[in-house]
Amino acid sequence: MSKLNKEGIIGEDICILRPVLLPTSCVCGCWCGWSIHSTSLLLVISSLYFQLTFCVASSSAAVTLGPTSSSITNPPTPPFKPTGAALQDHHVDPTILIPICVSALLLLLFVMGCFTKLFRRRPSNNQVGVVIEQKNIKDIDDGCLFKKYSWDDIERFSNNLSQVVGSGGFSTVYLARLPATIQGAIKIHFGSERLHLVFKQELDILLRLRHDNIVKLLGYCDDIDDLGALVFEYLPNGSLQEKLHESDSVLPWRNRMTIAFQLAQAIEYLHEKCSLQIVHGDIKASNVLLDEYMNCKLCDFGSSKMGFSSIVMPSSSRTKQMMIGSPGYTDPHYLRTGIASKKNDVYSFGVIILELITGMEAFSPERQIGQLLTSIAGPMLMKSEGMNVVEMVDPRLEGDFDLEEAKTMLSIAALCIGHSPILRPSATQILQTIKDQISFLSSPTLLPLCK
């Protein structure tokens, strides 16, 4: 048998790795090396493979050795016949070789299993989580940083919470001046432990969202118990509620159609394009904000549900209060059953379409005919002989609207507010109908891009 040379080669036919640890004699009588590398699993597997191969080859050669090309001379010599002592030295007992091979195979499977487990435990790039202790939270999808601020920062940015720009059932929104002279809006959750849980839930959802028609989160603060702050981009044109119902100026027809389309895009993103589907739970005109170019941004995710809870909600009274919605926008089917689904948002979207077309508020205590817009427009939409579209359009537009577009949007609204949630269209179906029927919204140059 040839000796091991400097390159770890035995003879001319069999190659093994240079021995690093445990240089011992194997059961075949040869000197094999078990090579272990501290950082490479591949070296361990390769060493095991070559050692087993060499052992089997050596045992076969020990029993029958024939002439080789290097040993043939002229005249040829008779084949070598090993003596009894040689056979005894090189014979491999199957009772020894088989357990070694089985053990080696099990070891190989074990090592490969460990390697696979370690590989699967590596975090994937699309996982986004909330780590409250970190100073910054990375949104891996588009490289946006969410900054964690201190309460001193919040007070400094908002000038000690001096200017209120909005309020809701759970929070108050203040105008802020962020670093680099950027205007922002700070939403403060005051009060009880329950409201702090609402803040945590909204933060968890917002950290997962990235869409041009959803308000952008810039940072947050949770330094104080039962008190949380969310820092958003500032949207100077207020809410759809203000522009449509509380402003002296009239919102043009084309802006109304664009807002409806963009809102449908935001809903489709929540329902169909998030890793965990999300039901907003409180879609209404005051939660649709408008930027400087009158593009809409859906906000307020304090009532939202994510994942399995977005399909079926427990029937406890406390949970119902968390997702009761707003008068005039809440799905009657949800009020009857307590079952929350994406079709609740579709119902609310249908109500907003009616607001955009008629110019009437979804709920008005002062209205003489009826408090709910759906109770007024519903019977008109269901007329068998056909509805009078011109009669339903906001009279403040003074006829400056497209009749076919109005028919299309009223038909969509009728489907959205239907009694059976199963028969209501999905956000994707709504978007496709709008693209097919309203030409200026089907142009790719006018469609907002989703990040």
Question: Brief overview, please?
Answer:
This protein is α+β, with helices and mostly antiparallel strands and 451 residues long. 38% of the residues lie in helices and 14% in strands. The protein is globular.
Largest sheet entry: 7 strands, mixed
What share of residues are in beta strands? 5-15%
Give the overall shape, derived from the CA principal axes. globular
CATH structural architecture of the largest domain? Orthogonal Bundle
How many distinct beta strands?
Answer: 15
Structural class determined from secondary elements: alpha+beta
How would you describe what is shown here?
With 451 residues, this protein is an alpha+beta fold. The chain folds into 3 domains: 9-65 and 88-119; 136-233, 2-Layer Sandwich (Phosphorylase Kinase, domain 1); 240-446, Transferase(Phosphotransferase), domain 1 (Orthogonal Bundle). It has helices at 41-63, 84-90, 94-120, 151-157, 193-206, 240-245, 253-273, 317-322, 332-337, 342-358, 373-381, 389-392, 403-416, 427-437; strands at 9-10, 14-15, 21-25, 31-34, 136-139, 144-148, 164-167, 172-178, 182-189, 217-221, 228-233, 278-279, 288-290, 296-298, 305-306. The chain has a 7-stranded mixed beta sheet, sandwiched between helices. The protein has a two-stranded antiparallel ribbon with strand order 1-2. A hairpin with a 4-residue loop joins strand 5 (136-139) and strand 6. Helix 1 runs antiparallel to helix 3 (94-120) and helix 7 (253-273) runs antiparallel to helix 14. GO terms for molecular function: ATP binding; carbohydrate binding; protein kinase activity. In the C-terminal section; belongs to the protein kinase superfamily. Ser/Thr protein kinase family. Residues 159-441 form the Protein kinase domain. It is found in: Cell membrane.
